[in-house]
Amino acid sequence: MTTTTIIIEAVIFDWDATLADTRTAVVTSFQRALKTVNITNVSNDYIERRMGIGAAETFREILQKTNQPIDELTIKKLVEYKSQTQIELKWQVQLFLGAIELLEMLQNKIKIGLASMNNKKVIDTLIHDKGVEKYFQAIATGDTVKQSKPHPEIFLKCAKQLNTHPERCIVVEDSLFGVKAAKAAGMSCIAVTTGAYSKEELQKEKPDIIVTSLEQAKFYLLKHISSL
Questions:
Q1: Which of 67, 76, 152, 214 could share a disulfide with 185, CB 3.0–4.6 Å?
Q2: Which helix (H) or strand (E) holds 190?
Q3: Per residue in 139-161, pLDDT tens?
Q4: 27 within 8 A of 47, measured Cβ to Cβ
Q5: From CA 113, how far away is CA 118, in angstroms rounded?
Q6: Per-residue pLDDT tens digits for 65-104
Q7: Which of 117, 128, 219 is nearest to 176 (CA)?
Q8: 153-161 vs 176-184: helix axis angle to the nearest 10?
Q9: Are 159 and 10 in contact (CB under 8 A)?
Q10: SS3 state at 25
């Protein structure tokens, strides 16, 4: 961004690997679900790098990659198994350093949304368990949209729920899919290197800035949003 102050009315966060370190729980839940259909040759790294597109789309890709038959009933059962397992593993999830401080800074000063391709039941459980549900005025999840990231639908849906225009939103994301979706939605984007992607990989998607932590994101927002 070239200006020192931008007109921003809302900050929209991703959840997995952005606000919370969920990678271990996500990978474990995917692997356990895949074992129910006798798939055991998918690497943890592959799963980590698909975080952001939603469980259903990830399972479709894996079934296709492993030459397994794809039907929506199987996908639905895999998603349900994965979601329930991830809920059971909620004790493995920790908020990243600076998450609470960032949300506290934004609360009552700007609209805050959450846009995650994870399942609504999982997100509702985790944000309640971590004590952060009070910060979000709008929550959009993967099972409430038709298109997965990098399609912008989930961010546009969240902006609509927040009653703000896309160009007045700034997204905080960790994945290539999320950055692509934010930019496709016409939103500003802070990319954070807390997920599976390097600074160099994220830079190719042209986020407005790349930071290494939520604490750095906080300083950037303080500098660039006039209402803070």
A1: 152
A2: strand 188-192
A3: 999 999 999 999 999 999 999 99
A4: yes
A5: 15
A6: 998 888 999 999 999 999 999 999 999 999 999 999 999 9
A7: 117
A8: 60
A9: yes
A10: helix
Cα–Cα separations (whole angstroms), residue 108 to 14, 136, 171, 227: 20, 11, 18, 10
Catalytic residues: 14
Gap between the Cα atoms of 69 and 62, Å rounded: 11
Single-letter amino acid code for the residue at 211: V
Q: What are the C-alpha distances in Å from 109 to residues 106, 123, 135?
A: 5, 24, 11
Asked if 179 and 173 touch (Cβ cutoff 8 Å), the reply is yes
Count of all residues that appear for the chain in the document:
228
What sign has the CA pseudo-torsion 209, 93, 159, 78?
positive
Beta-strand ranges (E) seen in 3-56 are: 10-13, 20-21
Q: Are 28 and 44 in contact (CB under 8 A)?
A: no
